[in-house]
C-alpha cells in the first residue's frame, strides 16, 4: 500500500501541469488588474492560481491515469488480502457470528410457526409441555450451592432425563430439534428457555423479557433427583422447594398460575386431566376455579387428586389445593382471581427470575429482549 501511494503522489506531481489553465497571458493580466482595482475587503479569498498562474510544471495526463490505476489496483489487492486471505495462501478468515436481537426473534418466530402448525398434540398445542420443559430445566436451581438452573440443558442426559418429574418432556425436546438444526448457533439451554417464553406469549400470556447467554454443559452437571416439587405434598414442601430457588410466597402462587395451561397425563405423572376449560390460553381461570368451584377427591385407582364436583372434567393436585387452604397463599390466590393484570405482571416477573436462576449473563438486565408475538 505504501508503495502504491508513493507512486500516486509521484504521478500527481508529473501530471499537475495538465491542470494548468489555458488562460492567455493577456487574460491573466486583465484579471490581475481587476483584482487590484477592488478594495481589499472586496477581494475575498482570491485563490493563488488567480494571482500566480495555475502552476509552473510542464507535464502530461498519462501520469495521473497511471497513478490512479496503481492506487486502485493496490486498494483492490489490499482488500482481497484482508477479506479473502485464502487467495494468497493464508488461513481463511474466520467470521465470529454474534447473534443479536433480530436473530433470536427469528428463532422465536420459528418456534411460534411450529406451534401453530402442529396443533394436533394434546389439547391443540405443544405450548404447555414446552413451558414445562423450560420450568423443569430452571427449577433445579439451588441458591446455596449455586447449582442447577437452566444453564447447561443437562436434561438432555440420563440420569436427569429419567427423573420421574421429567417424564414426558422428551416430546418437548424432540419438538425443538428441527429448530436447533435450523439455528445451530443457539445453545440448547437458550433454546429451551426461549421456547418457554414463546409458548407463554403465543398462548396469550404476558410478555416475558429474555436474556441469552446460557451454555450447554456435559452430564457431570446433572442435578440429583428430588429438586422438583412433588404434587402429593403440602405447603411446607412447596415453600421448601421454591424457597431453595429463592422465591417467596407471592411468587410461588403467581408461578402456580401456569397450571391454567396443559394437563396431567396418567402415563407421565400418574395424575389425569386439565385444570381449566381453556388449557391452551393463559388466563387467571386457575385461581378463579380454585376459589369458585367445589372440589372433591376423585374416586379412582390413581394417586390422590381432586375433581370439580359440577362437571368432573377438571382436576387439582394436592399442591394446587394448598393455595386455598394455606392462609398466606390464599391471599394471593384471591388477588389473582380478581385481577388478571396483577396476575400477568407478577407471573411475568417471577418467570423471568425463574428462567435466569444461576445463569452468568453478560447481557445486562436492562437490555433484555422482548419478542414480538405472532399476533402483535
Ligand atoms: C408445586 C409446584 C408444582 C407441582 C407439584 C407441579 C406438578 C405438575 C404435574 C404433576 C403436572 C402433570 C405432568 C403430566 O402428567 O404431564 C404438571 C404439569 C404442568 N406444569 Fe406443573 N407443577 C408445579 C409448578 C409448576 C410451575 C411453577 C410451572 C410453570 C411456571 C408449571 C407448569 C406446568 C405446565 C405448563 C404443565 C402442563 C404440561 C403438559 O400439559 O404437558 N408447573 N405440573
Automatic annotation (TrEMBL):
It is found in: Mitochondrion intermembrane space; Mitochondrion matrix. GO terms for molecular function: cytochrome-c peroxidase activity; heme binding; metal ion binding. Its main location: mitochondrion. Residues 34-48 have a biased composition (Polar residues). Belongs to the peroxidase family. Cytochrome c peroxidase subfamily. PANTHER family: CYTOCHROME C PEROXIDASE, MITOCHONDRIAL, THYLAKOID LUMENAL 29 KDA PROTEIN, CHLOROPLASTIC-RELATED. This is Peroxidase. The lineage of its organism: Eukaryota, Fungi, Dikarya, Ascomycota, Pezizomycotina.
Amino acid at each position: 500500500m505504501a508503495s502504491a501511494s508513493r507512486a500516486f503522489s509521484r504521478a500527481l506531481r508529473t501530471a499537475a501541469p495538465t491542470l494548468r489553465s489555458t488562460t492567455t497571458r493577456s487574460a491573466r493580466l486583465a484579471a490581475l488588474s481587476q483584482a487590484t482595482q477592488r478594495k481589499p475587503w472586496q477581494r475575498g479569498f482570491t485563490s493563488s492560481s488567480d494571482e500566480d498562474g495555475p502552476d509552473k510544471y510542464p507535464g502530461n495526463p498519462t501520469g495521473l491515469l497511471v497513478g490512479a490505476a496503481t492506487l486502485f489496483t493496490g486498494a483492490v489487492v489490499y482488500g482481497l488480502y484482508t477479506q479473502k486471505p485464502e487467495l494468497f495462501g493464508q488461513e481463511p478468515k474466520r467470521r465470529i457470528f454474534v447473534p443479536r436481537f433480530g436473530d433470536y426473534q427469528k428463532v422465536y418466530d420459528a418456534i411460534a410457526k411450529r406451534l401453530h402448525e402442529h396443533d394436533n398434540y394434546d389439547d391443540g398445542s405443544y405450548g404447555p409441555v414446552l413451558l414445562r420443559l423450560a420450568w423443569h430445566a430452571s427449577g433445579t436451581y439451588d441458591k446455596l450451592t449455586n447449582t442447577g438452573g437452566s444453564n447447561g440443558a443437562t436434561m438432555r442426559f440420563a440420569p436427569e432425563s429419567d427423573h420421574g418429574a421429567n417424564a414426558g418432556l422428551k416430546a418437548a425436546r424432540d419438538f425443538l430439534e428441527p429448530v436447533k438444526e435450523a439455528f445451530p448457533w443457539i445453545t440448547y439451554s437458550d433454546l429451551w428457555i426461549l421456547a418457554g417464553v414463546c409458548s407463554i406469549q403465543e398462548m396469550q400470556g404476558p410478555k416475558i423479557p429474555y436474556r441469552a447467554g446460557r451454555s450447554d454443559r456435559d452430564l457431570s452437571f446433572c442435578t440429583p433427583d428430588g429438586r422438583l416439587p412433588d404434587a402429593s405434598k403440602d405447603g411446607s414442601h412447596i415453600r421448601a422447594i421454591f424457597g431453595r430457588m429463592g422465591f417467596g410466597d407471592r411468587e410461588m402462587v403467581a408461578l402456580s398460575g401456569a397450571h391454567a395451561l396443559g394437563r396431567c397425563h396418567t402415563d407421565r405423572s400418574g395424575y389425569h386431566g386439565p385444570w381449566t376449560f381453556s388449557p391452551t390460553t393463559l388466563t387467571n381461570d386457575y385461581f378463579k376455579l380454585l376459589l369458585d368451584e367445589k372440589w372433591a377427591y376423585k374416586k379412582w385407582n390413581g394417586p390422590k387428586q381432586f375433581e370439580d364436583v359440577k362437571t368432573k372434567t377438571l382436576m387439582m393436585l394436592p399442591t394446587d389445593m394448598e393455595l386455598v387452604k394455606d392462609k398466606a397463599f390464599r391471599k394471593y390466590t384471591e388477588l389473582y382471581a380478581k385481577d388478571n393484570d396483577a396476575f400477568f405482571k407478577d407471573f411475568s416477573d417471577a418467570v423471568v427470575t425463574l428462567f435466569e436462576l444461576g445463569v452468568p449473563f453478560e447481557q445486562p438486565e436492562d437490555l433484555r429482549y422482548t419478542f414480538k408475538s405472532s399476533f402483535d
